[in-house]
């Protein structure tokens, strides 16, 4: 087994800064698309399901391209993959800004989906775990995810402020400028290419994937990840429309998304710290259960500004960035980090299938019934189920699950 290459402090710092900036800009933009539902549908004379279909395409492409993009990054490098993704992000947002109908929105959604595969989640976590030691892994995943969440605080507020006074195309051009700024961030984060991941040096990618598809712990985690995607994307996409339907000020939805982003910073730090102490599969299950309970309490009561912001704060503590230290840490513990981008990509396919269903299904239910009641009821039930299954069946076993021991557990 080849020895692990440890980066110097300045190299690791630049990788972490680039990764955090990439997440801040990319996920801040992605978190704000729901704010465009009302102005875009009104301006282009399309339905809510037309707009959310474009978001569903974005999430499907993001999910189904993630495994391929992860394999490309593992083979050819993080830097070239991330920088290409940032360039595609610019193109996708430009097409959306110039859209005149549903088809252009769908094309834009497909390009943005590919861009997110290259710049967010899987590749970002891979860069972080390669830049730090195994002992610091969970904590640093939490720190980078927390810093990366800052965009989810600033971008929705800035976007809604522009939408209140300018055509939605102007706000979309702001997104284009932010995507351009992702190019240097991707270059810095791609410095992780000089730090090869240990743990599967003598194992091929095909062998790793075959073992992952037979590993119960990995499969349960991925299945629960489906429900995570469904609930979170349903909320971020449809909360603005739900609040408008209930007669609330449009700025409230932007404020709620910003609060979610701010609270997720603390949630990421907390989960990163807890993930270094307690079993990650149990923490994941508890997170899904708590999220569903909060979901149900909020939607069963009439929304007010106070209850909405309180709900946003609670959900932010349990938002996606808080999963990054647990998901990334769990995959690294089971399989090592050599093919981590590929394995996270495989699990993310399932996550984004749920996200697509949450975005499009919520719009479809609303168009058919004129209400979001059925959508949140379904989301609550399957969220609770996913959490229980994750706790009971998502832990390691001694005999039946094939596992590739990480390098830190192997003898040289």
CATH architect. name: Up-down Bundle
* Overall geometry: globular
Average of the residue pLDDT scores: 86
CATH topology: Growth Hormone, Chain: A
**Number of beta strands:** 0
Largest sheet: none
Give the CATH level 1 class.
Answer: Mainly Alpha
- Find the structural class using helix and strand composition: mainly alpha
What's the Cα radius of gyration? 20 Å
Fourth-tier CATH superfamily name: MFS general substrate transporter like domains
Strand fraction = under 5%
Portion in helices: over 70%
Distance between the termini: 6 Å
Question: How many separate structural domains?
Answer: 1
Tag the structure with descriptive keywords.
78% helix; disordered C terminus; Growth Hormone, Chain: A; globular; mainly alpha
Q: Can you put this structure into words, describing what you see?
A:
By secondary structure, this protein is mainly α. It has a single domain, classed as MFS general substrate transporter like domains (Growth Hormone, Chain: A). Helix content is 78%, strand content 0%. The protein contains 17 helices and no strands. The chain has helices at 9-31, 37-44, 48-76, 78-97, 102-119, 121-131, 137-148, 151-165, 168-189, 205-212, 216-245, 250-275, 280-300, 305-317, 320-335, 340-369, 373-393. The longest helix is centred in the middle third of the chain and has 30 residues, at 216-245. It is globular, with a radius of gyration of 20 Å. The relative contact order is 0.17. Mean pLDDT is 86; it is low at 399-412.
